[in-house]
Structures are given as structure tokens and as C-alpha cells.
């Protein structure tokens, strides 16, 4: 799931990656909204909120939304640098190592939440950074076929592929796998949001621990497979 890149990836690998990481992204995005009333994976909404609050003179609030966008971009930059450097050195498991780093940072967030909690600002900024990092990994490894936090893009692509399904022949056959991928991503993001909301309301910071454990299990298994191959 985190070793093969670009054209070497199969439909099953992309579907598995999209399903798992979109679910986690949806859950973490929901937590950001529960904790601070803002989204950590929705940069379209954050930029719109920044513009709205700036116009009405709420400069401090506008800067807070800008900070979330900056954190998301920074996460993507860090993932990009790590992947480029890893690929230059021939590290097959570089994508898995980046997801491993995400899991460890998420584990640290969970530990801090359980020990007494972080302030809202630090928590949502940290989650935005992790969402940018994760989305960059999935985008790069799949050559932009899989995006686990970019819901507007997924919905747009879904609409495009639905329109392609009205055309007979090769166009319809090519659209079907993409339609399945985008539909699954949207569904899992929504289900992750529902599950994250319910789970966080019951166990609080343990949600981060569980999400980190899932990511860590995925990353370490892929690193092991890369070393075997």
C-alpha cells in the first residue's frame, strides 16, 4: 500500500489506501471541529473563513485561520522534502516512514490530551500539520489519484466520472475505477467524521492513540515488506 508508486500501483492498493486514510482524516477533522469549532483538513473552508473575518475586522481570528492553512502547507512541504530525499537515496519505504512519523506525532498528541489536554490552538494547528503531511503522501505516491483530505476535489472528480458514465464504450470503462475510488474516499471521510465524533465524545484523547496505532501498524508492516523485497 505504501511501497508501489505511480503506474505500478493497482486499483486495489489505491482503494485500500484511500479507504483507510480517508477514514482517519475524517475522524481527525471532526475532532478539530469538536474541540475548536474549526476544521483541520478543510483548507477551502479555512481560507473562506479567513477572508470573511478579515473583512469584518476580526484580524486576530482571521490570522488564526491563516495559521491553520500555513500549518497544512508546512506538513505537505515536510512530507515532500522527506519523500524527494528518500527517493533520491533509493529508499523504497520512504512513504511508509513518513506515515510512521505521522503516527508517532499523533501518539504524542494523544498522550498530551490524556495527561491534561493541550490548548485548542496548539491542537488544531498540530492536526492541520498532520493532515497536510498525510495528504501529500497519498497524493505523491498515487500521482494525485488518491487525496484523503481534499473533499472538494474528490466531489468534483466524482461528478466528472459520473458524467463520463453516461458515455458508452472506452470512456465509461475508464471512468468506473475512478468513480469507485472517489466515491469510497468521500464515503470513508464521512464515516470517519461520524465515528470520530462519537468515539471522541466517549474516550477523548484515546481516539488519537487508536488512530496512531492503526497508522503505525500499516507503516511498520510496509517497511518490513520493503526490507524483505
TrEMBL record:
UniProt keywords, alphabetically: Membrane, Transmembrane, Transmembrane helix
Top-rank taxon: Bacteria
Record-linked Pfam families: DUF1275 (PF06912)
Ranges that cross the membrane: 12-39, 59-82, 94-114, 120-137, 181-200, 206-226
InterPro entries: DUF1275
Name listed for the protein in its UniProt record: Uncharacterized membrane protein YoaK (UPF0700 family)
Organism expressing this protein natively: Donghicola tyrosinivorans
Amino acid at each position: 500500500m505504501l511501497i508501489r508508486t505511480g503506474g505500478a500501483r493497482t486499483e486495489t492498493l489505491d482503494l485500500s489506501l484511500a479507504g483507510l486514510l480517508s477514514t482517519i482524516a475524517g475522524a481527525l477533522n471532526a475532532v478539530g471541529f469538536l474541540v475548536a469549532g474549526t476544521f483541520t483538513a478543510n483548507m477551502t473552508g479555512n481560507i473562506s473563513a479567513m477572508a470573511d473575518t478579515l473583512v469584518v475586522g476580526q484580524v486576530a481570528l482571521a490570522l488564526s485561520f491563516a495559521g491553520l492553512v500555513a500549518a497544512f502547507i508546512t506538513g505537505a512541504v515536510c512530507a515532500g522534502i522527506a519523500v524527494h530525499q528518500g527517493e533520491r537515496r533509493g529508499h523504497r519505504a520512504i512513504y511508509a516512514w513518513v506515515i510512521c512519523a505521522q503516527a508517532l506525532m499523533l501518539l504524542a498528541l494523544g498522550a498530551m490530551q490524556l495527561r491534561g489536554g493541550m490548548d485548542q490552538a496548539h491542537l488544531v494547528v498540530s492536526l492541520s500539520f498532520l493532515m497536510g503531511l498525510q495528504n501529500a503522501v497519498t497524493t505523491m505516491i498515487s500521482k494525485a489519484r488518491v487525496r484523503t483530505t481534499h473533499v472538494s476535489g474528490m466531489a468534483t472528480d466524482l461528478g466528472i466520472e459520473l458524467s463520463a458514465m453516461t458515455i458508452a464504450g472506452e470512456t465509461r470503462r475508464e471512468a468506473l475505477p475512478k468513480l469507485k475510488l472517489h466515491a469510497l474516499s468521500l464515503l470513508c471521510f464521512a464515516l470517519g467524521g461520524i465515528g470520530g465524533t462519537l468515539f471522541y465524545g466517549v474516550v477523548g484523547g484515546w481516539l488519537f492513540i487508536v488512530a496512531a496505532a492503526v497508522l503505525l501498524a500499516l507503516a511498520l508492516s510496509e517497511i518490513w515488506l520493503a526490507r524483505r523485497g
